Amino acid sequence: MKPEKIGRVLGIGVRVAGRVAGQRLSASTQAAASAPAPSAPAAAGAAQTRNPAKAAGGLARGVGGFLRPFGRVGGILWLEVTGVFFFIFVPVFVWRGMWPARASALHGPEHLKFLVYTGLALVFLYLSVSSFWRAAKK
Questions:
Q1: What is the distance between the alpha carbons of residues 36 and 42, in angstroms, rounded to a whole number?
Q2: Is 48 helix (H, G, I), strand (E, B) or coil?
Q3: Helix, strand or coil for residue 61?
Q4: Rounded distance, CA 1 to CA 71, Å?
Q5: Which percentage of the chain shows pLDDT scores above 70?
Q6: DSSP character for 37?
Q7: What's the rounded Cα separation, in Å, for the pair 32 and 25?
Q8: What's the pTM?
Q9: What is the mean pLDDT of the chain?
Q10: Where is 100: in which H helix or E strand?
Q11: CA 38 to CA 54: how far, in whole Å?
């Protein structure tokens, strides 16, 4: 993901969150200014009818919406780090296993060793390339 796009996403998110917060604050101040002061028993009853689970759900949605771009960037970063980790093993298998056994690759005493290291190098190369490929698709 390009840095310009990350900044654009964060900027839009902050503007939308500020607009929503401003609307809610203005709505609550208008409602408080227009409503008469309730008596003590009525205020206690109104406080009991509020649903704390609904308020917590709204907070969770708000925080989740704010963290969504970070989760996407974190997922891409995770795939790229995983790709680098898998690629570290490819030169090790080639240099330490395949290269010394190359002379007997077809019909020598280290034929099996050559095949095992070749297979391991190919598997880790596939894992590395597929990880980068998935990161590029996100």
A1: 12
A2: helix
A3: helix
A4: 12
A5: 79
A6: P
A7: 11
A8: 0.51
A9: 81
A10: none
A11: 24
Position 135, amino acid: A
pLDDT at 102 over 90: no
CA atoms within 13 A on the CB side of 5: 6
**Dist CA 65 CA 11 (whole Å):** 13
Q: What is the pLDDT of residues 33-82, one digit of tens each?
A: 666 555 555 555 555 556 666 667 778 888 888 888 888 889 999 999 99
Tell me the Cα Rg of the chain: 30
Check: CB of residue 74 under 8 Å from CB of residue 138.
no
Using alpha carbons, list the distances in angstroms from residue 43 to 21, 27, 57, 73.
Answer: 25, 19, 24, 46
23 token code pair: 């609307």
